[in-house]
Amino acid sequence: MGAFSDVAGSATSTKKLVNLLRGITRPPKALRVQSAFSNTSFRWPNPSLLPTQLLDKATHNVLKDQNIAFPAMSYGPDPGDSRLRKNVASWLTDFYQPVDPVAEERVCITGGASQNLACLLQVFTDPVYTRNVWVVAPAYMLSFRMFEDAGFHEKLRAIPEDDEGIDIEYLRWEIRKSEHKAKASGNNKPRIKPSRPWGKIYKHIIYAVPTFSNPSFKTMSLRRRQELVRIAREYDALVITDDVYDFLQWPSSLTTRTMSLEKAVLPRIVDVDRYLDGGAERADADGFGNAVSNASFSKICGPGLRTGWCEGTIKLAYGVSQTGSSRSGGAPSQLTACFVAETLATGELQHFVYHTLQPSYCKRYRKMVEVINKELIPLGVRLPQTDREVVGGYFIWLTLPHPLKGAVLAQRAKEDENVVVAQGEIFEVPGDTEHPSTSFGNDIRICFAWEDEDMLAEGISRLAVVIRKMQGETGEQGTQPVATEGQAKNFW
């Protein structure tokens, strides 16, 4: 991997590079070839938002106390540092406000969301018996490799989104067809994985980023979350949700003074599973539940920590802790987990998230959306879920007016205006793009987490220049009116 400064923009433009792509981790080969990117890591928050002083203080506090330092530098317990589990459980309780406090036993410390996705697949799937991995599309494209590594290369299926975040009827129809096929072929028990008392093999995996999704920016409605849990229970599916952006939220209004929110906008799917219709641990259930929340400190503290957590039922959390790699060396990221535990114990990380990260990203978001409303909406560019009261995350998804293509725009923007964006095709689920809503040839994704506010505005203005040129070449013109200040609130 190269340094983040290796991002390649235009080879000929004299304009300063505006990077609206950053947020991807190493673009796939197709994007690197078409857009001339180097093999570079792109999952970067702006360096000004990395809490180095906070971590410096926490590190010293941990290492100077032998009662904490010696365990921190040793093999950790399989479920992870107990202090971090307790502190995470407490923060989750405050933020999501479930009916009952989140217990430490529901939390397992991980090496980050990506590492733990791989662990979940190791423990809870069988490459033969598990019928399909259902991925809400557009999807975080680097998850595909993890599913392929787990043996699901030919079993990846795309589930389109609708206005509420997932097309639940399409999923219901397709998963029913998958079950008929499995029964007809005699696929009625795990073939590869052994039976283990601390684990189970699910028939289906459903993968989603339900809140401020990467890349679609959508948030799944509460109704859809409930329907998804019911489908998961009916067909013995495990819903794996990447809840990595939940803490990065703010009001959608472009004019309100409030720029941070300390309570979650919706319960997570794991919370829905915990309580809906008798709950995950109801009398007739096996106790593992049908949902797991996969989370990380990468977006709220720093990706180099390689530390995260997952939450599920007590049985499921314990099963995660028994992954072979954890049993071999104890919890991943033991030392950094202890550093992060210190930041939560003092309340400094929570304060940093609410009073630095949220307002900073809110300002960047507002600046970008103001220019989108002014320059892109009149050209016919469309935005998702324009009636939400709360938004967040890193990204905005844009649908281009017909007949413009995202790949062409991305290439022209780079060459002509020295702006880099992500084209929609890279977020398509491999091998399953026949449904019109699982193909994203006329979409792009832009990121507001990296560039400063002025450069975000400049980048959108340059994109508008390219779109106007392309429309002039095709004879197509935008039909949307310019958004007024009052209308801007309705858009978001």
Automatic annotation (TrEMBL):
<dbReference type="InterPro" id="IPR015424">
    <property type="entry name" value="PyrdxlP-dep_Trfase"/>
</dbReference>
<dbReference type="InterPro" id="IPR004839">
    <property type="entry name" value="Aminotransferase_I/II_large"/>
</dbReference>
<dbReference type="InterPro" id="IPR015422">
    <property type="entry name" value="PyrdxlP-dep_Trfase_small"/>
</dbReference>
<dbReference type="Pfam" id="PF00155">
    <property type="entry name" value="Aminotran_1_2"/>
</dbReference>
<dbReference type="GO" id="GO:0047536">
    <property type="term" value="F:2-aminoadipate transaminase activity"/>
</dbReference>
<protein>
    <submittedName>
        <fullName>PLP-dependent transferase</fullName>
    </submittedName>
</protein>
<feature type="domain" description="Aminotransferase class I/classII large">
    <location>
        <begin position="71"/>
        <end position="463"/>
    </location>
</feature>
<dbReference type="GO" id="GO:0030170">
    <property type="term" value="F:pyridoxal phosphate binding"/>
</dbReference>
<keyword id="KW-0808">Transferase</keyword>
<dbReference type="InterPro" id="IPR015421">
    <property type="entry name" value="PyrdxlP-dep_Trfase_major"/>
</dbReference>
